[in-house]
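Appendix B. One record, verbatim.
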Amino acid sequence: MNDEPTIHRVDPDRLAPGVWSEKFNRFNGEGDIARAYSADTITMNERVRDPFIFQGNLRTSISLSGGVAKAYQLVPMDDFRLDEVVGQEPIEDWDARRSTELGFYHGVVVRYRSDWFVLTGPPVYFEPGNVVQPGLFA
């Protein structure tokens, strides 16, 4: 595998953290990649927030720092090799798990709405960049 992480440059609005509104009890102006952050819900109840779509694939963010997001792809449980799934068994070597090329969350089973998915690595990174939209007939 490649040692260099995959970095995608996206419209900065997709990474925007948004501003909390007391009136509406939610964030306003939050980008879809930032809104998909789910590391906390994965550890608490195996659920992910609404994922974002990138290049036709569902993804969830597990880290947001300095305007850069780290994300994993969600693959339907039926499409994933079961021998790679990480269940509820205790992890013996946390450092080894974090340093694998596929990433710490690879193989973790999560739920989105009523469907089960598996997070697949390696993780990819999203950072703000100038995105050029191709013309309609380009």
